[in-house]
Amino acid sequence: MATYTNILLLSVVLFASCLISFATEVTYDDRALKINGERKIILSGSIHYPRSTAEMWPSLIKKAKEGGLDAVETYVFWNAHEPVYRQYDFSGNLDLVKFMKLIQNEGLYAILRIGPYVCAEWNYGGFPVWLNNKQNMTVRTNNPPFMYEMKTFVSKIVDMMKKEKLFASQGGPIILSQIENEYGNWKVESEYGNDGKIYVQECAKFAESLNIGVPWIMCQQDDAPDPMINTANGYYADNFYPKRKIPKMWTENWTGWFKDWNNGRDPHRTAEDVAFAVARFFQKGGTLQNYYMYHGGTNFGRVAGGPYITTTYDYDAPLNEYGQLNQPKYGHLKELHEILKSVEKLLTYGNATQKAYGDDDWQYTSTMYEYQGSRVCFLANANDKNDRIFNFEGKNYTVPAWSVSILPDCVNVKYNTAKVNAPKKVMVRKPNNGDNPNGLDWSWRAEKPSHLKPSFINIKKKGVLYANQLLDQKVVANDTSDYLWYMTSVDIKESDPLYGGEAVLEVHTDAHVLYAFFNGKHIGTKWAKDGKYSFDFQQLLKIKPGKNTLSLLSVTVGFPNYGAYFDKVKNGILGPVVLKSPSGVVKDLTNNQWEYKIGLEGLERRLWEDEDYMHRNWKPAQTLQTNRMFVWYKTTFKTPSGDDPVVLDMMGLGKGTAWVNGNNIGRYWLTSYDFEKENGCSNSCDYRGNYHPEKCATNCGQPTQRWYHVPRSFLRKSDNNLVIFEEFGGHPAKVNVQTVSQD
Fold first, then answer.
1. What confidence category does residue 19 fall into, taking pLDDT thresholds of 50, 70 and 90?
2. Of 99, 155, 440, 558, which one has the fewest beta carbons inside 10 Å?
3. How many CB atoms lie within 10 A of CB 437?
4. Rounded to an integer, what distance in angstroms lies between the CA atom of residue 596 and that of residue 477?
5. Beta pairing partners, 663
6. Tens digits of per-residue pLDDT, 172-216?
7. CA 94 – CA 96 distance, rounded (Å)
8. What structural domains and CATH numbers belong to the chain?
């Protein structure tokens, strides 16, 4: 027994020594990140694990590697992992440990941006809404309740990573971690005054205390305390220079932009411009850059923030929403990566010599890196109109406008950012051949709006919230639903000036969509437009003698995710709510007794699930109700053959949510944009000049988002259930399943 024990102990010691031997030392100097003492160029790309599925991860990571990346970067999404206080979820596409291990299995590094504030166009910036219900809570500042909760979550993530030996210091893939996020941006830290400055210091001190064995970064943080590394975000970072002796690193090179429901434009940043930005960055001393995004993915369920961020988060990234190569961007950048890695030693150890051409020192420049007898040269033309002939070392080189030529031997041009060799691919959507060519067979049932019943108005119901004021929807619903009913009544006696007459109902709301019902009848719908998420609803009413009931359904479409004090932005119907007679009499209902009900009957009955025992009262196709608000639709469809990505074409519907086999594929909305408005798009796209999201946009005059991703892992081998809740009213006849290929 003793011999066996000794052998076991020896095995443990040998195993531990192997782990130590595979540990990676990550340090840095003023030039670059150092891996085991060697300066390195790091090419990274953002892939957010919850914006795809666990089944998609291996392919996405492999394509990132094949595209020439060294690392995969991701945020950590607090509200996804802790939606309910101290109830954690790391299953399915939230399995962060699995995601990290898959990155390691491909031989890539990982950059873990823990935050826990992430922005990312993610609901509430990644914060769980239950924080808002804690006493004396203010997020992202030197606030003890927040600091306690923030430290608790960050510590949990760090402990998970340590337990699985995922930090590079333990032999894992994680070479960098991030605390906080973009806090130094304009009008963020400064708005919190001295408490904001203290908060930055406390975040850094706390991060260092976790002893993870790899450096910490704080992006967009000029006052990042030592040893935090301040990094840049933006479309261009060539002119970013850290204030301290730390490497020049770029955490977010925006490969495109996100979409919102306010307009139909699809942002497009050209491959030429992204490559130009990358080449300029490395020409001017950069050594780590990360594409935000490399794969954007999908905002499944209710995770989209904003407000009004769309379900698609394609971002015009090198890998499209479905994980396919976005050509020519993917291929053009891959070529650039190969060139940069081939001169890694020169860029990280070489002496740089800069030269300006002409009167403008910024527009026309050459840079030469020399090391141990080898050289690499960059010729940059930052003029956005004119090509330039460079006379460099006795030879003429023509460099197109807004481009960089790279000469790995300072003689021959091997790459120019404006000359794209990668083939362009066009997305082709094809109908599902397995389905009936005449369309899907639908059943339906109505969603019953919630109303007060006059005979029960004064009876308090168990489990129902009552208040003599209008409450913040965020506080009441606690992010469990987009929907909250505000219900009250008004008793009109014979002596009342409103008795038997007319009045205008006026409702001020800070939610995003409002449905109004008076005495059980729908009287109007209104939603926020043009980025103004506060609006007034008005409707003329006929007042009846006695009890009159008012039901207002407030709908949120994502909570704010950016800016100082975004947690203090209230949502829902905040009032006033008044009735105004033609003679000027005002009856204020703001401080009436209001009854609150979260969600919808169909959601409560879980109509989106597959189990039939909860699904009685579905009506057949012969009685199909169309162009009617608040309707549930259900159908089945065949799984398309092959491996091409699957999408739902939701044309014909208005606004709502869709589920496939019980999986929430996200909010849909096709009618929020004026289809006739075409400003912002043109048939031509000039890559030259600074990029902005309106430049080179496409899809003008079309629905904001028509197609919705259904991951293959959501599907069964044969028949699949599709359930839709339609709010506005539409016709499901045009809804169909398609596959996406590339030609």
1. very low
2. 155
3. 8
4. 9
5. 660
6. 999 999 999 999 999 999 999 999 999 999 999 999 999 999 999
7. 6
8. 24-347 (3.20.20.80), 425-444+604-669+704-740 (2.60.120.260), 448-598 (2.60.120.260)
What helix, strand, coil percent values describe the chain, rounded to 5? 20, 30, 45
Instruction: Give exposure, 323-336, as e/b (b: 16+ Cβ within 10 Å).
Output: bbbbbbbbbbbbbb
Cβ-in-10-Å burial (0-12, 13-18, 19+) of 395 comes to exposed
Residue spans of alpha helices (H) in 106-190: 144-163
Do the Cβ atoms of 273 and 687 come closer than 8 Å?
A: yes
Measure the CA–CA gap between 465 and 606, rounded to whole angstroms. 22
Look up residue 252 and give its two tokens: 């977010």
Which 3 state secondary structure label does DSSP give 628?
coil
Confidence of residue 458 (pLDDT cuts 50, 70, 90): low
- Using the 8-state DSSP alphabet, how is residue 618 labeled? P
Q: What is the C-alpha to C-alpha distance for residues 182 and 511, in angstroms, rounded to an integer?
A: 26
DSSP conformation class of 122: B
**Could you list the active site residues?**
182, 252
348 and 365 Cβ atoms separated by less than 8 Å: no
CA 91 – CA 578 distance, rounded (Å):
47
CB 597 within 8 A of CB 499: no
CA distances from 516 to 366, 550, 629 (A): 65, 8, 12
Name the token pair of 112: 């873990």
pLDDT, residue 410, reads 98
Which of these, 247, 37, 52, lies nearest to 709 by C-alpha position? 52
664: three-class secondary structure by DSSP? strand
Is residue 298 within 8 A of residue 52, CB to CB? The reply is yes
Structure tokens at 421: 């060799």
- pTM of the predicted protein model: 0.95
CA distance 7 to 691: 64
Of 645, 634, 644, which Cα lies nearest the Cα of 612? Answer: 634
Closest Cα to residue 307, out of 556, 83, 126? 556
DSSP state of 449: P
> Average pLDDT for residues 133-155, to the nearest whole number?
98
The encoded tokens of residue 154 equal 């960050």
- pLDDT given at position 11: 47
The whole-angstrom separation of Cα 729 and Cα 727 is: 6
Give the E-state strand segments of 393-455 in sequence order: 395-399, 403-407, 415-416, 427-431, 443-446
Rounded CA gap, 188 and 24, in Å?
Answer: 36
Whole-angstrom distance, CA of residue 356 vs CA of residue 379:
10
Strands 42-47 and 71-75: parallel
Residue 143: strand, helix, or coil: coil
